[in-house]
């Protein structure tokens, strides 16, 4: 029975890694499309989000089946519950990639990336892609050093997010309302992506070390 | 054992309703503060969000304990797993109320509510409060007619959200960048609040009727 359980847990882990890899691909596509105004690529990201959603649902079903059949307790139980939460966060990260792609499509044939903020959003996009890849690595390897790395990347995203508002609210900002709306939404999306990743990282860290409350704490909502 | 389990489930339900009631109070305060520029009330909402977070964590712990001790299966198991998801959604709804309060505080002594959009945001705020109260009622009574009501309220929020963008992107919009940023964020927050409520409603509906996939489907991310 124990062996079956650990086989099941490995299956859960494999699937979480797979979803995280898909999220990384989605974010890579979304930020590239956003930077270049590539609407075909944006469409692709939007379409592929369904795959992430489906895989998250399948994983939830697997987790519920494990709870029902193998009735884990203690740490094993917490791992399964954590997997349910991680899958929800990954699904939302996929949705964020989709939102960025939608912003690109909405502005086509113009570029969604507001003038004067190109380098900032390029940087945010690069960090988000690194966040997604690091998160997949963390789920694959359970190397807790990656939690700190994700925390640092998230700090960088927060700082860039603030810098977008500073720019937009400065005297020098020449953007029209559409550019201001785009900058606000895009910056929010990029920043939230990091929050969700950090939430997953804290969950992984909790499973290794034991404190649960840290999770809700650091994670901003919406 | 069955009796103990049903006692535990009632306890879970009571706590969910309690958190939903707190979310309704938070949203009521947040929208009132946003409309009137009442920064003291905004501070109160921000402070009280910790209570919601703590209660959500306690509920999660209770759910995990029920899984461990009573090892429910089939529908009972799904109810407990759903409770974990519902508590996460309620916690996020509380965070949204906090974000609206933070927007109010950030703009003080100015009013955060952008000129020309006062009636729109008053309406969105009223609907969000109704959403929160309806959701608490749904969790209390399990009256599935309330799911349809929440779905209609969410449609109204979506329409108002779109109308904000139409206004902000119209030739007639005279707002400065700060007003555009505020309108964008506030509208997004108000609209997301409805999404989370609908996600909970679908979960409740699923438990009564049986289809799980509907959940992720209709719910927008971030």
TrEMBL record, chains A, B:
Pfam families: PhoU. Its main location: cytoplasm. SUPFAM superfamilies: PhoU-like (SSF109755). It is found in: Cytoplasm. It comes from Microbacterium dauci. Belongs to the PhoU family. Keywords: Cytoplasm, Phosphate transport, Transport. Homodimer. Residues 17-103, 122-204 form the PhoU domain. Plays a role in the regulation of phosphate uptake. This is Phosphate-specific transport system accessory protein PhoU.
């Amino acid at each position: 029975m124990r062996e079956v359980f650990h086989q099941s847990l490995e299956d859960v882990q494999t699937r979480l890694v797979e979803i995280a890899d898909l999220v990384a691909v989605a974010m890579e596509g979304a930020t590239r499309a956003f930077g270049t105004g590539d609407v075909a690529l944006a469409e692709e990201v939007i379409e592929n989000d369904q795959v992430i959603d489906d895989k998250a649902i399948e994983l939830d079903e697997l987790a519920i089946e494990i709870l029902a059949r193998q009735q884990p307790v203690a740490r094993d139980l917490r791992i399964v519950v954590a997997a349910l939460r991680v899958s929800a966060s990954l699904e939302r990260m996929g949705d964020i990639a989709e939102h960025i792609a939608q912003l690109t499509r909405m502005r086509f044939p113009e570029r969604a990336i507001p003038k004067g903020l190109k380098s900032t959003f390029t940087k945010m996009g690069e960090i988000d892609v690194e966040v997604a890849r690091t998160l997949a690595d963390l789920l694959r390897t359970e190397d807790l050093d990656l939690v700190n790395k994700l925390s640092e990347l998230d700090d960088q995203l927060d700082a860039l997010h603030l810098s977008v508002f500073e720019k937009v609210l400065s005297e020098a900002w020449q953007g029209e309302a559409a550019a201001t709306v785009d900058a606000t939404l895009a910056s929010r999306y990029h920043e939230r992506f990091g929050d969700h990743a950090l939430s997953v990282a804290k969950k992984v860290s909790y499973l290794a070390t034991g404190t649960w409350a840290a999770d809700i704490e650091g994670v901003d909502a919406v």
